[in-house]
Amino acid sequence: MQLTAENFVVEEGIDQHYEVLKELGDCHASLGNHDRARHCYEEAALLAPDKSGPAVGLGVIGLQTGCTELAEQAFRRAIAIEPGCAEGYGGLAMVYQHRQDYAGAFDLYLACLDKDADNLVALLGLFQTSCQMGSFAKVIQYLNVYLDRHPGDVSVLFCLATLYARDGRYGEATDALETILVLEPENVEAAALLDDVRRRQAATGAEVMSP
């Protein structure tokens, strides 16, 4: 007899059956099997209507398939089910970013990070939208909070250095880039940005000193 998720209902109980269906949905979604993933999430939602996970999963499928309206509906449903659902806010932010509503996406990424400061997807999304808007103060704050917990995250250090450089804070950009090169001496992008920052810093110093 072939074992399926349905075979576990009686033996393992509703909670575990929910988890099995949710994990199967996540697995199918990651493999691009959207119809199977959707079926698993819908079944999981019937078993546990008070959990936001299936709605988040359906939202992810919407993003993967380009159905942003369906994605938005699903993420909003996740937030309605669990107002503290960081993934719901993060997913909704991605929908807004896809529509080039950067201000809306920015606020939603902030809402996500207020609920989960370690959400790297939201952090990088906040970085991208801040670059589009030219507003760096908030994202610099959240990048530093994240780095307090994960000091060796090179991708976040590089984002921070980029924002410092754009904001004219060359000394802080240099410190971040030098830290990256200690961790990854062969990091070509960090080395190139460090050279650029040093040139700009030298030029700024020359302008200040000129009569």
Structural notes for this entry:
This protein is an all-alpha fold and 211 residues long. It folds into three domains: 1-75, Serine Threonine Protein Phosphatase 5, Tetratricopeptide repeat (Alpha Horseshoe); 84-138, Serine Threonine Protein Phosphatase 5, Tetratricopeptide repeat; 151-201, Serine Threonine Protein Phosphatase 5, Tetratricopeptide repeat. 78% of the residues lie in helices and 0% in strands. It has helices at 9-30, 34-47, 53-64, 68-81, 86-98, 102-115, 120-133, 137-149, 154-166, 170-183, 188-209. Helix 3 (53-64) runs parallel beside helix 5 and helix 5 runs parallel beside helix 7 (120-133). The model is unreliable at 5-11 and 206-211 (pLDDT under 50).
What do we call the CATH topology of the largest domain?
Serine Threonine Protein Phosphatase 5, Tetratricopeptide repeat
Shape: elongated
Number of strands: 0
Largest sheet entry: none
Please state the average pLDDT score: 89
Helix content class: over 70%
Q: H/E order of the elements?
A: HHHHHHHHHHH
Kindly estimate the percentage of residues that lie in beta strands according to DSSP.
Answer: under 5%
**Known CATH architecture of the largest domain:** Alpha Horseshoe
End-to-end span in angstroms? 88 Å
Query: What structural class do helix, strand and pairing data support?
Result: mainly alpha
